[in-house]
Amino acid sequence: MPVAIFDMDGVLYRGDTVLPHARETLVRLRASGWQVFFATNNSSASRDDYVRRLDRMSLGGDLDHVITSAYATAHYLERLEPRPKDVYVVGADGLRNEIRAVGIAVRDRAATPGLRPPPEAALDGGGDAGAMRRHLVGAELPAAADTVVVGLDLHLTYAVLAEAQRSLLAGARFIASNKDRAYPVEGRLLPGAGSIVGALEIATGRSALCIGKPEPFLFEEAVRRAGPEAGAVVVVGDATDYDIVAAHRIGAIGVLITTGLTPHDAVAGASGDAVPDHVIASLDELFGLPALAGA
Fold it and tell me: What average pLDDT values come out for the chain (295 residues) when binned by 10 residues?
């Protein structure tokens, strides 16, 4: 049974807008006997959140067919020896909840030292940089976390970066759910998790271990779930250096769609494993590819 793995942001939707032909494509593949999986680097939501979102958008899907970098990160941590006991997350609650679901303790974001500056240090109170520095220096500090996990954080603050830096400099494990450079939403791109990971790598002189694409873990999990009857694997993504590289690392056909991170005129700059097998401008063009003949 052939397997199709779709990235979501920039491929099936942008923000809350379903992209053209997304619903029809998934219906047609399923009706033709394809197993359809969803694999995203976005760690801001849990798999349950994504299932609800896919249902709301009439795209289908269930927990067994949704794989996120948050889920993969949690299960990576679960297998570590020694197992983490105190994790500080720079990211959203979806990532925290996935890690907690495997029985690992995660600090509450609200407990971050210096998170709530006094009025004289708050930006809307005049933005006194000296006051903010004194506030951070004077904050009561807990013991350093043993592991720092970084994902997409739409509410990032300097205090959060400072606390993550402190634990990393003290020797904490450094894990990135993903290193995406950008996050496609309606009409524009927003900074991705990679921009936050990069800031901490510079601040500490260390490199994070990446769990999400272009590492193969997410796609390998999809193929594992597809079972021994899995046939050809086709990956549809919007980033040459994430989706296409990860596809080729598992021996899959990598199809780039130009509705997200990578415009068509940028494909010529790809090299090695980042070179897509096919480039399409719209999901309905999938069915003109040899691997989907008869679907």
Answer: 95 94 98 97 92 97 95 95 98 96 97 90 68 91 98 96 98 97 88 97 98 95 91 95 96 95 85 97 96 89
SS3 173: strand
Q: Is 124 a catalytic residue?
A: no
Strand ranges in the chain using DSSP code E only, listed in sequence order: 3-6, 13-14, 17-18, 35-40, 66-68, 87-90, 147-150, 173-176, 182-185, 188-191, 209-210, 233-237, 253-257, 278-280
CA 26: distance to chain centroid? Answer: 22
Asked whether the beta carbons of 146 and 164 are under 8 A apart, the reply is: no
- The whole-angstrom separation of Cα 106 and Cα 205 is 24
Q: How many CB atoms lie within 10 A of CB 98?
A: 30
Beta-carbon-side half-sphere exposure of residue 181 (alpha carbons within 13 Å): 9
Reading the block at residue 92, the tokens are 């959203």
Establish whether 7 is a catalytic residue. Answer: yes
Domains assigned to the chain? 3-41+213-292 (3.40.50.1000), 71-210 (3.40.50.1000)
CA 249 to chain centre: 18
Q: Which residues of 1-13 are buried (b: 16+ CB within 10 A; e: fewer)?
A: ebbbbbbbbbbbb
